[in-house]
Amino acid sequence: MNSAIRKYWAQYKWSNVFAMIANMKRHPSRHTEPIRDKLVAITGATAGIGYRTARKYAAMGADIIMVNRNEEKSERVRREIAEEFGIPIEHIIADLTRLQDIQRVGQCILSLERPVDVLIHNAGVHLESREETPEGLEVNFAIHYLCPLIITKMLMPKYRRDRAGRIILVSSEAYRFAVWGLDLEDLQWTRRRYSGIKAYGAGKLAQILSMHILAGQLAPYDVTINAMHPGMVRTESGKDNGPLYRWFKRNVIDKYSGSPEASAEALYYLGTSPEVRHTSDSFFHLTTEEELTPPARDAEVAEALWRKTREILDEMGVAL
Ligand SMILES: NC(=O)c1ccc[n+]([C@@H]2O[C@H](COP(=O)([O-])OP(=O)(O)OC[C@H]3O[C@@H](n4cnc5c(N)ncnc54)[C@H](OP(=O)(O)O)[C@@H]3O)[C@@H](O)[C@H]2O)c1
């Protein structure tokens, strides 16, 4: 870690933090054209940002595929959106922390004949205590990093064929909490004391680092991939944490949080506006492009993370 401090210290700029603070006050840019006959796939659309975003795209005429883990909630949202907006909407039920489910989702989308015009990797969690999937993966690592990476990688042949698409990673400014970067020897928090916010930040940082590599692989197919912070907004995030956290969330965090309508507006803009059609490998605070912190721009670490991830997945029988 000391070497990371030495490496990044001189690269940090206060102006970067001030820019983020200024961006917190900005409203997202809007795109008002409808998108008919386009297909949008979104993960985690049963609540919060994903739900609002599915409604936004539906209201603008898009066809929708949601990927949700809770069948009952998912069916309720599917029916509500279909009845209200009269658009075709389907769902895939999957737990996006489980490798088999993640691969099944990749396979389902891969087998579609039509292009996926917008793919939004939104599903996420905030966990105050360390949790593992049945396969022994730390949950932040699995859902924020492995899931979008595996699905996107599986879709490469489709993107090569369709030569169209925008991918959006719903990231978070909390990636900054991984101040000195990732611990590549402890990506899953087995050796260090787990911290909810640090593990969340590390998952989002890993996601951003993988974006740099995926962007290079997608570029020949004219497919873009970008990450965005959806604002600090009132959602169900953290609902599985203990009563103290939930009290704090309700009485403090939510009081300073905005509405996820703004996140949905931003996700619509990023997915449809011609202004960002050719922008790739960028980080947006809502719709304002931001410079990433030094650990999130580290190409060497991005490569090392990719190699390490390939090893982890190889052992679990998943090819990257
Ligand atoms: N809210 C904020 O202020 C904020 C700020 C920065 C970034 N974000 C990011 O925004 C994204 C959406 O979060 P949110 O705030 O809208 O939270 P939310 O209201 O809790 O919604 C999260 C969505 O993800 C789904 N999900 C969670 N675990 C899943 C799993 N294992 N498999 C499949 N789906 C799963 C949830 O499904 P269930 O309904 O079944 O739980 C829900 O649909 C996350 O990536 C989060 O990190 C949020």
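^ NAP complex. The first strand starts at residue 39 and ends at 43. The CA atoms of residues 313 and 319 lie 6 Å apart.
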